[in-house]
Amino acid sequence: MPATSALYRVSARLAAALVPLAGLGHDKIARSHRGRRGAVDRLVAWGRSHREPARPLVWLHAPSVGEGLQAESVLQRLRGRHPEWQFVYTWFSPSAEPLGRRFPVDVADYLPYDLPEHADGLLAALSPDVLAFSKLDLWPELATRAAAAGTRVVMVAATVSPGSGRLRWPVRQVLRPGYASLSSAGAISDDDAARLEELGVAPERIRVTGDPRFDSVVEKVGAVRPDDPLLRFGRGAVTMVAGSTWPADERVVLDAFARLHVHRPDARLILVPHEPTEAHLAPIEKSAARLGLPTPVRLSQAGDTPVPFLLVDRVGVLAALYAGAGMAYVGGGFGRAGLHSVLEPAACRIPVVFGPRWQNSRDAGLLLSAGGAESLTGFGTEETGEALHAIWHEWLGNEARRLAEGQKAREVVERGRGAADASAALVEEAVLRAT
Length: 435
Hints:
The protein is of the alpha/beta class. The chain has 18 helices and 14 strands.
């Protein structure tokens, strides 16, 4: 069986030791470390008191919200077909905690640091039949030790972007034992399958199953009630929802809105920061005042009447806001962390625009090729602000084009459906081989 190298074990232990120091200047890291403290004990305690060896157990892991949504659609199908199975769900990022806590599983918690003693303790207590990683967040120590213990290790919705650091030397060699331990992997495309093979997955263990996120977003958007009060903010005028934005996105969006508002005072904006903390919201309000924009109204203080500029200060509301909108801007296309999900607005039949760093997003590429999205060029605020203003103005003035692009975006989503069933079948096969 593959095993991790001494280099990996030393690096993992050093990283775990340094996290508390890194958290002193970074709130998200600090929250992640606090949530992870005691996770081993909590999961082991559940295993000792609630694990029923006669029932198959599937352990799903996803690092953050996007990967969690992929896992959710697969989990729902497995839970519906096999109510007798037990399910464990873990995550890595603190942003995924609210999502993970509401999943229909037997126990959910943070994934502990990838250390040998943690992996051995968890595997002994949980005795999983299948350990399933979502997207690419495979942890080599846990994966190799699970495989050695007889657990089938699989990957669903496997995605490897062309620019992934995991493909570079020496990272690829250090991580290779983890990927070599996979008994099966469901890739979202042929290109991803080829890159999985580069990482060390045996080619005969890879199949292309598609991306379950397509099913997830359709189900999420379909669950928005027609009487959802959030829909009112998009009524009465064609509204732009800028979702999951970062400061670089917000500078461009506000610049474009200021340009547009001069000759289209009826234009409306709903701005939804990725992290709606006070430290993030206050600068947006100051920038709006400096640009002469309508005063932003925070969602928590909004009444029943739509406003020209709504600033969202809570999480978990994007689906309903997109469903009531006429167009969408998706954040993340100016930073290195990656573009956020463009599929949710596409599922709402609205056209999408995003920043220039979209190349690692397969979904963005599909939308652009189909004519359901637009991308900005350049990186300067004035340059990209003018480009966004032009697109925004065209969508406002040409309803036929806007509706046609929105329909093309939805068609991309429709063509991707069915992956959740294929991914669930991959996990089912693994359980049957393990039991």
